[in-house]
Amino acid sequence: MLETFRGYNGRQLNLHALGIVVSLSGLLVVAPMLPEIIDYFGVSAAEAGVSISFMWACNAAAQFPGGRYSDRLSAGVVLLGSQGVMILGFLVLAAATTFPVFVAGLGLIGAGYGLFEPAGFVLLQTHFEENRGRAFGIRDAAVNLGSALSAVLAVAIVGTFSWRDAFVPVVVLLVLVGVGTHRLNRGEYAVSRVALDPKAVCSRLFRERETYAVLVVMSVSMFLWQGSASFLPAYLQAVKSFSSFEATVAFASMFVVGMVVTPVAGALSDAWSPTGMGVTAMGFGVVGLSTLVLVDSPIGVGLGLVAYAVAITAIWPVMYVYLSDVLATETIGGDLGVLRTVYFAVGSLGPAYIGTAATRLGYTSAFASLLVGFGLAAIPLVWLGRR
């Protein structure tokens, strides 16, 4: 495992992981602060859910251009550009005093992170021919660390400072990551017009039935992830009688679990079947979410959250290992960008769905309905495993 962190390739992985941690700590800090944001702007849970869905929709729209530019130009160019867009977005959020300005800031950080992620995959694909599963597992551990730190950031801010102040340290750290990205880059920053040509990419990808199966798995998983994570603290406070602090700690604990699970899942996928690992993850999801909905004791809720966290975090390195094996190296940025555009677009509907369902039916019914998703994701995983 340690050799993955060493040398020039290891430094690239370390810096990219740091960029993920900083970026996601800013993106996801919105969720634990959502009750305060709703009160500040005087909006409903449904309106708040739609605003978060807009952020992830912008993320989805930027995925394909980010991947295509990374293939045709360089990952370094796209990484720097994406960090610039996110810095601008976080500055807008830090200054937001009206809900439309807040939503505009969410759109910018969503688009910036949408450019950032496919460029990172091209970077890792280029530098890691061996230990690729471990590299993707470490990358996803960084995702979970950034998610956990978003909760820590929220705890430090709420009740002491304005929620807008949470974005100031994110801006400072992103600037430092950008400087590090520039200094570590060995290539030239060649910028030119790139023909996106999504029709050609889609015609190549969607000739295979496996593509549709992969999209179902990842679209449903992203829908579950975005919907549940965005409203988990609000759900725990409204239904399980958690305090704001307890709900935020519970939210963070899911990502702490993910920090352990994702490197293990990635390493196991190098040796075993990625699809079999995926089916196992879906089983954990059913058990975890059922426990979370049906049990009211703090210990039971905690056990449910652990099992649920295993499911929604383990599936990503598993599927990325599968995709890195089946997608062509020379076009993986654009191909993965198209796939990510689709499943992030579907996933972006999750917060709007949960917010609307919670407003009309209550949080318990909204979260319980997500159980159907684990079955929908397991079916194509079984089919892919038999190919």
Automatic annotation (TrEMBL):
Keyword list, A-Z: Cell membrane, Membrane, Transmembrane, Transmembrane helix, Transport
Main location: membrane
Top-rank taxon, per record: Archaea
Bilayer-crossing regions: 12-34, 40-61, 73-96, 102-124, 136-160, 166-184, 212-236, 248-268, 275-295, 301-323, 335-354, 366-384
UniProt subcellular location: Cell membrane
UniProt keyword Transport present: yes
GO function terms (MF aspect): transmembrane transporter activity
Segments forming domain Major facilitator superfamily (MFS) profile: 12-387
Membrane topology: Multi-pass membrane protein
GO cellular component: plasma membrane
Pfam families registered for this protein in UniProt: MFS_1
The protein, known as: Major facilitator superfamily protein
UniProt organism field: Haloferax gibbonsii (strain ATCC 33959 / DSM 4427 / JCM 8863 / NBRC 102184 / NCIMB 2188 / Ma 2.38)
Lineage, top ranks: Archaea, Methanobacteriati, Methanobacteriota, Stenosarchaea group, Halobacteria
